[in-house]
Amino acid sequence: MIVCGDSSLAHRLTLELSAVYGEQVTVILPSVRERHGPQIAALARRRGLPVNIVQSDTLDDTALSDAGVERAVALALTDSDDQENIHAALRARRLNPELRLVIKLFNRNLGRRLEDLLERASAVRAPDLGLREIDATTSVLSDADTAAPSLVAAAIVGTSKIVQADGALLRARELPVGARQSERALCTLALLPEREDDQPQLLPDDRTLAATQPNRTAVMLEGVSNGGADNAKPPPRLAGSLPLGSFFSRRLRISMVALVALVVLLAVLTWRLAHKPFLHATHLALLDVYGIGDPAVGEDNPRQILQLLAGLAGMLVLPLLLAVVLESYGAFRVASSLRRPPRGISGHVVLLGLGKIGTRALDRLCELNVPVVCIERDPQARGVALARRRRVPVVIGDVTEEGVLDAAKIRRSRALLALTSSDSTNLEAVLYAREKRPRLRVVLRLYDDEFALTVYRTLRDSYPDALTRSRSVSALAGPAFAAAMMGRQVLGAIPVERSVLLFAAVEVRGHPELEGRTVAEAFQPGAWRVLALDVAAPEDRRPDLSEPGRTGSHRRPELEWQLRPGYVLRPEDRVVLAATRYGLGRLLQRVPDADQHAE
Questions:
Q1: Residues 515 and 509: beta-carbon distance below 8 Å
Q2: Could you tell me if 190 and 219 are in contact, meaning their C-beta atoms sit under 8 angstroms apart?
Q3: Cβ distance 295 to 306 under 8 Å?
Q4: CA distance 523 to 565
Q5: Using CA atoms, how far apart are residues 359 and 379, in angstroms rounded to an integer?
Q6: Under DSSP, is residue 256 helix (H, G, I), strand (E, B) or coil?
Q7: Cα–Cα distance measured from residue 287 to residue 306, given in angstroms and rounded to the nearest whole number
Q8: First and final CA of the chain: distance in angstroms?
Q9: Per residue in 158-174, pLDDT tens?
């Protein structure tokens, strides 16, 4: 596999492919002395990691050939220049039509068109091979799209050991073997070793589990519906009336009350001094204020004086009305388009920042039906339009100012996602939130990996009872890019001690280990295990089940997780299975059918 670039994402992706998946990786970068070149060079020198380096100032045909693009399985383009990535992708597809491409690109519309163009080019260059057989797929990803699901999962599930399939979240959780009959437990992934020198026992069979002590720790796979938001209350609907009281400032409201009190006083004095009936006196006072009453010529002095005072009060009405219009205009636009946090909301996620990363995180939270309240300083930020469209409560203000987090009901929230582009702002918000609620789950975005690790350790030591996740975007995006390089069939990976389990969507046709066998017979202890069945019609299936998709009522789930052991797998079926690296390689014929290698 080939990785192009010297960014933090390239470094993280190289580490993920070589250390987690055990793949041979060649990195093309301008220099090993600049940016993240020294860290990538250190990976190449590390014992046991199959990493090579090719230095080239330009990503041309020569550099790709030197990296062995003709023999490569996959190529990742991680440069921040979209145009450079597109040019390199076109060159690579021409040199190797069977190459799997993973391209970093933020523009989704351009990305979809580029995927279609490159896959068509692959079909034209390799007419005798179908795309399904050669798996020459093109995946256009962005750091925002790939980091957001992991950030959301850490906030609502509380662990980074998650896999996404058909819009649902699957998490690995360490529990005693006796708890494997839990409602959410789908299967036992591994038995952890009782001694430190031993290896974990991956994908054990029922006989092994029955003979195991009930108090022994096992890693179990749990299905978390709606992203773990089962017990969270949905945000209550706001009343149909607009919050008119919030349109005017306190000073303006006091002025209006004082003016009304003055009119009432004039009416009472007219009633008492002019000896008029009260209703008639009130009518005369209002006419004098509006300047449309008859002059009090020839009447008593008290009546004349009161008319002059009423005219003076009427002169004050015009500037006051103008102030009301000017001040309430902007407030009316915001209040009529953005929802404010309801008073009774609880169990929600507070999302700080609606930029590139925050917008993707908000979209994912809405898909999982997780209640969320957003905080954004800029009313014109990228994600404000999405929040308005999804009717998500938004607090407009600077989170560093007193009271902004309180307005988002941080005391009753379940987690804080701090995703602004400023490390100091994210850290300050987290520290303030922890003061308000020490056990609050927090996930903050930090640019530098080392700084993120230092902050994580400090917060963990300061608040040992609270869950803290501090990651850079590259650290979160790396696993998703690596899974895309492994192919669309790979949904993700979960580390178990020093081993790793892969989750893949596999077509049954062409695999004698699966085709014509029951679910129980297809289970190979220590190699793979069938977890779910794709119940969608073959022509309606999504090519990539790891995409979030839509979990609302308008789309039925495609995966059936509760499988009968006696169900016979048909050639047209597609299944999701958990497998070891060796087991998946053997099933996909990527490694020879030999004795099982050490994980």
A1: yes
A2: yes
A3: no
A4: 10
A5: 14
A6: helix
A7: 12
A8: 20
A9: 655 667 676 667 777 77
- Looking at residue 228, its pLDDT comes to 41
- What residue type is 260 in one-letter code? V
Q: Is the dihedral of CA 411, 413, 414, 419 positive or negative?
A: negative
Q: Which of 13-17, 179-183, 400-404, 581-585 has the lowest mean pLDDT?
A: 179-183
Q: Which residue has the higher pLDDT, 174 or 5?
A: 5
Question: Which segment, 75-79, 460-464, 540-544, is predicted with the most confidence on average?
Answer: 75-79
CA distance 374 to 549: 22
Of the pLDDT bands very low, low, confident and very high (cuts 50, 70, 90), residue 64 is: very high
Contact between 527 and 514 under an 8 Å Cβ cutoff? The reply is: no
Find all residues with CB under 8 Å of 306, minimum gap 6, and list them: 266, 269, 270, 273, 274, 285, 288
Dist CA 596 CA 527 (whole Å): 9
Strand residue runs (E) in 65-136:
74-77, 100-104
334 touches 379 (CB < 8 A): yes
Q: From the CB of residue 230, how many other CB atoms can be counted at a distance below 10 Å?
A: 10
Two tokens, residue 299: 């009447």
Q: Is the pLDDT of residue 336 over 60?
A: no
Residue 410 pLDDT > 50: yes
Place of tokens 């009959």: 181
- C-beta of residue 477 within 8 angstroms of C-beta of residue 9: yes
- Which amino acid is located at 149 in the chain? P
Give me 457's structure tokens.
Answer: 């350790």
In the 3-class helix/strand/coil scheme, how is 131-154 assigned residue by residue?
A: HHHHCCCEEEECHHHHHHHHHHHH
Cα 467 from Cα 444, distance rounded (Å): 12
Length of the chain: 599
Q: Which pTM value belongs to this model?
A: 0.58
CA distance linking residue 66 with residue 54, whole number of Å: 7
Give the span between the Cα atoms of 400 and 397, in whole angstroms.
Answer: 9
Amino acid at 324: V
Amino acid at 206: D
Q: Is the pLDDT of residue 238 over 70?
A: no
Mean pLDDT of the chain: 77
In whole angstroms, how large is the CA radius of gyration of the chain?
A: 32
